[in-house]
User: Fold these one by one.
Assistant:
Number 1:
Amino acid sequence: MAKLQVAKPAAGRSANEQQPVKTVGFLVIPNFTTIGFASAVETLRMANLAARKPMFRTVIIAASLDPVKASNGMRILPDHSITDAPKLDMLFVVGSNPIVSDHSSRPLLNWLRKLAHDQVPLGGICTGSHLLARADLLKGYRCTIHWEDIEALKERFPGIIISNQLFELDRDRYTCSGGVASMDMTLQLIAREPGGRDIAAHTAELLLCDRIRGAQEQQRVPLRQKLGTSQPKLSQMVAIMEANLEEPVGLEELARLNEVSVRQLERLFHKHLQRTPSQYYLELRLARARQLLLRSESQVRDIALACGFVSPAHFSKCYSRFFGVSPIGERKQVASLH
C-alpha cells in the first residue's frame, strides 16, 4: 500500500502548528442511502489526497456493532457503536429510505442530544434531518431534506425551518438533500478549513466534478425556469396552485388573480403544459398526496384532507385512477420492499 505523503510545513510555520486531523463520524441506520453516504466519505478521502496530508479521519458508527443493511441491500460493518464511539469533531446522520421512525430509539436520540450538548457539529444526509428533528436538535435552525420528504417533515415538525435548497450550513448544523448533494456540502465544509478553498477545488477535480454547487441552488428546477421568462402569468398561476393544495383555488379566482380570462388561462395550460388547468391542479395534489403517503406515517384520511380532497373515498378514487393502485395498496406494496 502506498504511504500517504504529508506536505511540508509552510515557511514560518512549524510542524506542530499544523491543523489537527478531524474525526468525522457517520451514523448509519438500517436502510441508509449509500449514494449520500459514499459521496460524503469519498469526498473527505479525496481531500486528504488533494491536501497531501491527513485532514480528516472517517469512522462509521451504528446503534450496535452488528452489520447495517443499506437501502440497496449492501451491508456495512460499523467501526463503533454509539456506546464506544471516539471523540468526534463532527457527526453526520445518514438517513434511511424510506423514513422509519422505529430506527430512532431512545438511546440513539439521547446520544445525539449529548453530542449537541458537547457542541459537536451535527449533520444530516438525505433523511438524516428527520432523525435530528426527532431528537429536537433542529429548532431555530434552517435545514433541508430530500424534496420527496419536505412535506412530510413539515407535517411532523411544523416548528422547524425547512428549505428546498441542496444543502444548508447553519452554524453547527449541516443538512443536505441527499444523493450527490452530500458531495457539494462536504466540499463547502472543506473550503471552510484553513487553506481549504484550494483543497476543495482540487478535490472537486479529483472527483471529476466540473463545479462546486452552492447551498443556494434548489433541488428541483422551478417551472418558471423551465418555461423561461416568456410565461410569467403561467408560472404565477402554477405557484398559486402549489401554495394552495389543501384548499384549492377555483379557476375563476385563479384567472382573476392573474388578470386573464378563464379561456386565456385554459389556452396557456393547453399550449405549455398539455393539460387543462383542472387536470394539472389535480396532478399536483395527487403528487403531494403520494409524497405524504410514502414518506410519512400520516393516516390516509389526513392526507386526503391535506391535499384538498372532500373525503377519503374521493381521494382513493382519484388516486387509483391516476396511479393504478389504491393509496392503502401502494403503501403496503412499498412497505413489503423494506
Number 2:
Amino acid sequence: MAWLNPVPDDHWDYTSSICILRDLFEDRMYPLTLKGLEEGMAELSK
C-alpha cells in the first residue's frame, strides 16, 4: 500500500496528521506528482 499525498512534501513534517499517516504507511508516502507516481508504482510493484 502507498499513499499519494497532495500536500507538498516540504510541509509534511509540520502537519501532525500527515506524520501519523506516514508512520501508518511505513514511510510509503509519495508526493502527488509524476515523480511521486513513478516512485509509488515502483514500490507497489515490488
Number 3:
Amino acid sequence: MEVAKGWRWSADRGAGLSSHHHPTQNIESIRKMQRSKHDDAEDAGHVLCLNAGSSSLKFKVYRATPELHAVLAGSVKLTEHNARVCIQHESGEYEEEQDWRAISPGVLHHVLALLGRYEELAIRTVVHRVVHGAHLESGLAITRSDQHHLQTLEWLARFAPLHNAVSVMLIRACLASPVLRDCENVCCFDTHFHATIDEVRGRYMLDRELAGSALPGGMEMRKWGFHGLSYEAVLHTLPALLGRERGEVNAILCHLGAGSSVCAVVGGRSFDTSMGLTPLEGLPGATRCGTVDPVLVMHIPNANERQPSGVTRAEAVLNEQSGFKAVAGTSDFRTIVQRHKTDSSEGKRAKLALDVYVDRLVGFVGSYAAKMSARGGVHAVVFTGGIGEASQELHVALAQALAMSPLAPADSATKASEDCRQLRRAELGLEGDGSVPWLVCRTDEEAQMARRMMKMRG
C-alpha cells in the first residue's frame, strides 16, 4: 500500500522545518497527534507502525479503519557516513540527512517531531515489529501501567540480537515519550506465523533438559522461524493471483534481503522454514553466516568474551562479520552483482559469494518441493525482500540451477496485480516451458502489522 507522491516538501515551502529542527521543540503542537481534528467519538484515529532493524527504521501511519488507508510512510536509513530521513505524505515528500550512527530513542523523538507537523494525525496506537516472540501471541499490548512483558522481550533479544534489542528500546522510548503517553504499544512477532510448524520439522534432536527446558518466555530450544510478517503480507495477495482460497495455497516463499529465509507454505500455513531458533540458521545473509557446524563456534578465539552489546564474541562474529561481508568483502548484494563477472580478486570473491548463496537457496527450495510433493505439490515460487524483488541476476542464476527440476519456471498465466509480477522464461534465459509459475511480490510488513492490530480489535 503506497501513499500518493507529490511535490517535495522543503523548509522554504510551507513547512518551515529544517534538518536542524530540534525534536523537543513545540511539544504541545506535537501532541496534536494525540487528538483528532474532530470531536466525533466514532473517529478511530491513526495507527503508527514501527519496523525497526539494526540500521534502519521504517514507519507508516494508517487511518484505523477497515480499509487501512496509508496517509504517511517514511524511513530512516543509516549509511556509512550519515542517516537519510525520507517521508512521503499525501501532500508531498520530505527528505533530510542527519549525523546518526545508530537507531536510538533520539531518532524516534526526531521522527515524532516531524510527524507532529501534520495536524490531521491523531495517533492512538503504536504497533511494533518484534522479530523474536517465542510462544508469545501477536497483539501483545504494553502500556505505561502494564510493562511486565518487556523483561521477557529483553531476554529474547539475545536470540535475535540485530533486531529485538532495537525494538525493545523503541517500545521503552514510546512509553517515555510525552507525545505518545496515552498510546497503547502493540507487539507483532515474526515468530507467530510459524506456530503451525509441527514437531517433526520444528524439533531439534537435543535432550531438552540438557539444552534448557524452562527458559523465560516459554522459550524452547526449537525452530521458531522468522520473516513471518513478510510471508503473511505476501499471502494476503497471493491467493487471488493463483485463483485459490488461502487455505488451498501451496507455495515456496523466498524472502531474500540482508537477512534471507525460505518458507514452505502448505494449505496457506507455514509448514517449514529455513531459519530456526534464531535468524542465524539457514541461508547466509549480508553479515550472517547461515547454517554452520555447531562445533565451529567453540573454536572461534575468545568465543565467550562478552561484547558491549551483551552478546558473546562468537555470536557477534557469526551475526555481524560473516555472510557476504566475510566472503565478498562487502555486505551490499548490488556491489557483489556488479563485481562478480570481473577477473579481479574482488570479482572472484564476489562470484564465490553469489555461487554459495544460490547453492544454499537451491538446497532449501529443492528440499521443500520434495516435502510438498505428497501434500499437493507447489503452486508457485515467490520472491520478495530487497534482493528477491530487485535482483534479476539472482532470478536468472536460480532459474538456470533449477531449469531441469520440477520447479522449472513456467509461463502459465496468473492474475495481474500491481504488487506482483510473473517472471517469464525468456527473461530468465530459458526456452520451452516449465512446471511452476515464479512470481515477484512486493512485501509490506507495516501493512500486515496494521491488519493484525485491526483483527485483534475485531
Number 4:
Amino acid sequence: MSPPGRPKGEYRSAQHEGRPLSVCARVVGALLLCASCVALAADPAKVLRLATSDIDTLDPQQWQDTYSNIVGSSIFEAMYQWDYFGRPPEPVPDTAAAAPEFSADRKTVTVRLQPGILFTDDPAFKGKPRELTADDYVYSIKRYLDPNLRGGGDPLLTDLIVGMRAVVDAARRPGARLDYHARVEGLRALDRHTLQLRLTDVNYPLVADILVGVRAVAREVVDAARGDIQARPVGTGPYRLVEWRRGTRVVLEANPRYRGVAFPASTDPRHADLIAAMQGKRLPQVGRIELSVIDEQPTRLLEFESGNLDYVELRGEAAQRLLVRGELDPALAARGIRRQTYSTNSVRSIYMNMEDPVLGGTGIAQVALRRAIALALDVEALIRVVYNGQGLPSSQIVPPGVSGFDPQSRRPPHDPVTANALLDRVGYGRRDAQNFRLQPDGRPLTLSFTIFPGTVWREIQTLFKRNLDAIGVRVEFKVVPTQDLFKEAAQGQFQMNIHGRGGGPVGLLFSTLYGPTPPEGNETRFRNAQYDRAFEGFLRAADEKTRLAHARTMTALTQVHVPIIPLLVDVENAFVQPWVMGYHRSPFGTYWKYLDIDAARRLRGAGGR
C-alpha cells in the first residue's frame, strides 16, 4: 500500500502501488534522529526567497490549488509524507511513529502517533501548549469529508469508512451541518496517540489519501474562527504564517515549537554529497521564508538572475535563456548554479463542460464537435513553439510513472482534414460570411475558452485560435486569474478551460471523471457508468497488472467521449543558487524544512555579480 496525495486542484507528478511500507523501517530512524542532531536550527538570518503564484486559502481541508498546498504543507502535517529521495517514493512517517498496521483482511488500519508534537500557539489554546492527538486527525478527516465545505467532501472516502456515509448524508439536508460529535464506527481514536480506521472494502489508494493527504487542524481554532481559518493557519509543521498580503507576498517563520528532524537518508550514491553536506543538522535550518507573488516566468527569471530568488522552476523560453545547446550555461555553472530537470506529475489538459448545451452532452453532434477539437489541436507545435520542446505529449489523464499509466497509449495525431470532414458529416457544414461554422440548427457556433493570464497563455491562445480557425470553429478566450478559473469551473460557469491537474503516484487522477466526484474534482460533470465501474475496479485492485487493465478502459472511454483532451506533461527545470543546500526536486511535495542557506556564500555571490 502506497499513499497518494490528494487529487483535487492543480497539484504537482511513479507508480509503486502494491508494495508494503517496508521502507518505513529503513528511514523512520533518520526522521526521528533530531535528539542527536548537534547543529543549531532555524537561524533567523537564513532567509529563503522564492516566487509563487497567488494562494487562495491556508485551510488544509479547503485548498484546491497547487500553491496553497505548497505553502500550507509547511504549516500543517499529515501522518505520513513522501520519501524525499524515493523514485518512486514511499510513504514515511511525518507525525506517525511508525508504519501503519494492517489487519489480516486489510480492512482495519491502525496508526500510532509520536507523542509530544505541539501546535503553534493560538489564543484558542488559552496560553497552554497544545499537543497533537489522534482526535485531531479524527476531526480533520471528518472535516475533509464535510460536504458543506468548499471541497465538497469525498464520496469515495465517505463510503470507505464504516459508518461515515450516514453522517455525511445527514449533513446534506437543507440547513444541516456535519455533526462532528457523531460517533463513526470506522474512525476512532483508541487512545491519545492511536488512530484506527475500519473500512468497508480493501482500497489501497483511498487509504493512502487519508494517511498522506489529510493534515491535522485543531478544533478549538476552527471553532474560535467560526469555521474560517483560511488566514489563520495553526498547525504542527516546521513553519508558521507571519504575513500574507494577497496577490503580493507571503512570509513564513520557523515554528519555535517544532520538534525538529534530521535530513533524510538515501542509499543512492548520487545523493551522497548532498547528504554529507546536511549531515548532523537539526532541521529546519532556514528561519524565514519570503514568497513573492510573481506569475510571469520571464519576471521570475530576471529575479533569479539578479540573485533575488534562491531557486526557480522554469519551462519553455524562460528556461532556454539559461541554457546553451540544451545544457546549463557554462558561465552559470562556473558561478555554482545548479540545474535539475524533471517531468512533473501534472497533466495539462482541456476540460469540457459536459452539461453545456452546445459543447456537452452525448448527442452525435456534440461528441463529434469535441472529437474534432481534439483532432484540430497541434500538440507537437504547442510543445515545440510554446514550451521550447520541454514537454511530453499526453493521451491519458495520468502522467508517466503514475499507477495506471499505459506506455503503449498514443494521442490521436493532429489531423484538421479529418476534423473538418467529421464536422461536415454531422451537421456543422453550413458556414457564415466569415467562413465560421454554424450549429446544426443554424445558429452561430461560438465557443468560450477560459484561460489564465500571462505570456505563455497568450502564446497558447494564438496557437489554439489558429488550430480552431482551420476547422471553422470560432472561439473567444476569457482570461481570468488562477483562482477565478477554478471557482468558475467548480460552479459549472465555463464551456472549455485549460489547466494542469496532478496528484500522487497511485493514480487517483482517474477520479477526475468519476461520476460521484464533486464538481470541485470532476469539473467536466462527466458521468458514465462503464467508466465508474472501471474506476471502482481500479481502486480495489491489489496489483498493477489489474489496475492497468481498468485504466486502459478508462482511457479508451475518455478518448471516445472526450470530456477531457490531455495535452502534455510539463518538463521543468529547477535552477538553484550556489548558496542553497539540501535541495532535491521532489515531484510529490515541497520540503522547505530540508533546505539550508550558506549566508556567507550568498553575500559573496551578491558582491560578485
